[in-house]
Amino acid sequence: MELRARINSAMKQAMRDKATARLSTVRLINAAIKDRDIAARSEGNDEGVDDAEVLAILGKMTRQRQESARTYEEAGRFDLSERELAEIKVIEEFLPRQLSQDEIEAAITEAVEHIGASSIRDMGKVMGALKAKYTGQMDFGAVGPMVKGKLSS
């Protein structure tokens, strides 16, 4: 649970630094993780969530804030948009480095070859392999159409 330790350490440091904006974002991250822990326990998983699940939570939080920032900008509320973007920067500190476009394409090619995918029916297997290996490192919403294109050709 190295990622949880990093998040808790960041929260303590934000408290010491009296960085209120950073502290509130880190507390939001902790709350989301604890909510998922509670849900996992009710499903019979006494351990709670692992680092891969935490990465998925952080990715979801980032996407939500990007969407909110876009909505605020369209409404002319640039102050709220800037706050969302600041939260994204804090959340991204805990995410692994995002893969470049070339690295994503190479990962897709590798997954397709490894699985032996030949048609669009194998898309779920390819996406599952990518999610297992690259959680938090790529946007699977954008990767899905790339996989579909690769399997269609």
Q: Mind telling me the C-alpha Rg?
A: 18 Å
Mean pLDDT across every amino acid position:
89
Number of strands: 0
Structural class: mainly alpha
Task: List the topology elements.
Layout: H1 2-17, H2 20-42, H3 51-74, H4 78-92, H5 101-115, H6 123-134, H7 140-152
Description of the structure:
The protein is mainly alpha-helical and 153 residues long. The protein has two domains: 91 residues, Hypothetical Protein Yqey, Chain: A, domain1, CATH 1.10.1510; 52 residues, Arc Repressor Mutant, subunit A (Orthogonal Bundle), CATH 1.10.10. 77% of the residues lie in helices and 0% in strands. It has seven helices and no strands. α1 runs antiparallel to α2.
Relevant terms:
mainly alpha, Arc Repressor Mutant, subunit A, 2 domains, about 150 residues, single chain, Hypothetical Protein Yqey, Chain: A, domain1
Question: How is this structure best summarized?
Answer:
With 153 residues, the protein is mainly alpha-helical. It has 7 helices and no strands. 18% of the residues are buried.
